[in-house]
């Protein structure tokens, strides 16, 4: 049975509007570099004015005003016929995510789109950066280990009182 609202609506401070956009065409996220004074979520995306969006999103209603957003949604537009392929309503920007301090967490990231799923399907580097930056910003902790280099690597750390195991795949 489908819920009327999110199970964690109180935690995230947003409510489900009851509808979603399941197939977005030509959807992009605008990186709001100037408005947010280099928000940590946009680290590594400084040279990108926009990035591709996922293929769907859900409609939400914030319970409070959240201020400036590091990402806004450029409304999608049709992909055919060719003479109709252009952005519309650029002044009508939607928030792509909600970013707010919640309880003991320094930050809470709620994504109303499918950026993480999009990274899983096509390994889009920009979406990887958003996912990584979201985790780092929300946890507000220095990483236990940092691995750099080309490619994608799964890093798992298991820490005990007197030892640490790092598993790289």
Can you give keywords for this protein?
single chain; four-stranded antiparallel sheet; 18% helix; 169 residues; two-stranded antiparallel ribbon; alpha+beta
* Arithmetic mean of pLDDT: 77
Tell me how many strands there are. Answer: 10
Question: Stretches where pLDDT falls below 50 for ≥5 residues?
Answer: 101-105
Distance between the termini: 38 Å
Taken from the alpha-carbon principal axes, the silhouette is globular
SS element count, helices = 4
Biggest sheet overview: 4 strands, antiparallel
Write up what this structure looks like.
The chain has one domain. Helices cover 18% and strands 30% of the residues. The protein contains four helices and ten strands. The strands form four sheets. The chain has a four-stranded antiparallel sheet, with no helix packed on it. Strands 1-4 form a two-stranded antiparallel ribbon. A two-stranded antiparallel sheet has the order 7-8. A hairpin with a 4-residue loop joins β9 and β10. The longest helix is centred in the C-terminal third of the chain and has 15 residues. It starts with 8 loop residues before the first helix and ends with a strand. About 3% of the residues have low confidence.
Compact overview of the structure:
By secondary structure, this protein is of the alpha+beta class. It has 4 helices and 10 strands, in the order αββαββββββααββ.
């Amino acid at each position: 049975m489908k819920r009327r609202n999110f199970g964690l609506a109180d935690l995230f401070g947003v409510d489900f509007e009851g509808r979603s956009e399941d197939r977005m065409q030509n959807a992009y996220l605008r990186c709001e570099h100037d408005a947010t004074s280099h928000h940590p979520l946009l680290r590594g995306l400084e040279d990108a004015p926009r990035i591709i969006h996922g293929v769907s999103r859900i409609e939400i209603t914030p319970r409070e005003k959240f201020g400036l957003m590091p990402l806004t949604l450029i409304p999608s537009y049709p992909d055919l016929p060719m003479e109709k392929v252009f952005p519309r309503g650029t002044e009508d920007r939607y928030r792509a995510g909600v970013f707010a301090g919640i309880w003991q967490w320094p930050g809470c990231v709620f994504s109303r789109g499918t950026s993480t799923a999009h990274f899983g399907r096509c390994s889009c580097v920009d979406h990887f950066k958003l996912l990584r930056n979201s985790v780092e910003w929300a946890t507000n902790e220095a990483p236990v280990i940092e691995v750099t280099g080309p490619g994608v690597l799964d890093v798992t750390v298991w820490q005990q009182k007197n030892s640490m195991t790092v598993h790289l795949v």
